[in-house]
Amino acid sequence: MLDILIIEDDNELREMLSYLLSIVEGFNVDSLATGEGAIEHIESKKPRLILLDIQLPGQSGLEILSEVKRKNIPSAIIMMTANDSELCETNSLVLGAHDYVSKPIRSNVLVERIKRQLSAVDKKATISCDSNNFYLREQDSALIYNDIVVSLIPSEYELVEVLIDANMPMMVSDIFEKIHGFSYHVEDRSIYMRISSLRKKLLRYLPEVQLIKNRRAKGFYLAYPVSKL
After folding, report:
1. The domain containing residue 152 runs over which residues?
2. Within this chain, do residues 138 and 121 fall inside the same structural domain, yes or no?
3. pLDDT at site 128
4. What would the mean pLDDT of 184-199 be, rounded to a whole number?
5. Are residue 216 and residue 112 in the same domain, yes or no?
6. Per the structure, how many domains does the chain have?
7. Beta strand extents in 33-87 (DSSP E only)
8. For 76-127, how does the pLDDT look when each residue is reduced to its tens digit (9 = 90+)?
9. Do 41 and 73 fall into the same domain?
10. pLDDT value of residue 84
């Protein structure tokens, strides 16, 4: 199995990282110099971790990240960029990146972060989910049911976490106030939109299971046990 796929157009940096991670650290490493054809390569090689530059010819790193998440590919992803801005980091994490490093790359920091993410990948691989039981994994914001891993955006993760902590039906107003910390306005539809969006996503992956249900005059609740990892 391929441990790490490096996607970086800077030849010198790509070769340095390949040497560091394969020769020095002993990982099984492959690399690409462009984003073109990256998704096909990822699907074929199935790397445990992708070290992904944001600015790439052919297809940008953020586009590749978005496609990886859309296809529900389980590889951990660490983004790399020379643009040390909060917005760039936020965009990467919102799209589902597991970590983010700025250039110039500090080798010791990068290796530590890679090892941390690979450890999480290994832990994920050993998880055996019980029948009809869900797991919410903080490491990569994922909802797991049996062998199916569904990546969640932050608003979806937050919603599930609130319902787990409540362990009972919650009115929309209570969910809103728990998430935002201020009073709910009756015209605000944001919580309904979150619930609807998450239900539609889960329906694509788990058509036989309805996780979030609504009890009349009581509110929304989780129909199955969900454990935090």
Report:
1. 134-228
2. no
3. 45
4. 88
5. no
6. 2
7. 49-53, 76-81
8. 999 998 866 566 667 777 788 888 898 889 999 999 999 988 887 766 655 4
9. yes
10. 61
Unique residue bearing structure tokens 């608003």: 155
Any idea what the CATH number is for the domain that residue 102 is in? Answer: 3.40.50.2300
DSSP code string of 115-178: HHHHHHHHHHHH--PPTT-EEEETTTTEEEETTEEEE--HHHHHHHHHHHHH-S-B-HHHHHHH
Residue type (1 letter), 109: V
Indicate the residue type of 7: I
Helix 38-45 vs helix 61-70: angle between axes, to the nearest 10 degrees?
50
Domain boundary among 126, 151, 179: 126
pTM of the model: 0.56
Containing 189, the helix (H) or strand (E) segment is: none
- Find the helix or strand (DSSP H, E) in which 102 lies: strand 99-102
Query: Are 116 and 203 in the same domain?
Result: no
Per DSSP bridges, beta strands 76-81 and 212-215 are: unpaired
Q: Which residues of 56-93 are buried (b: 16+ CB within 10 A; e: fewer)?
A: beebebbbbbeebbeeebebbbbbbbeeeeeebbebbe
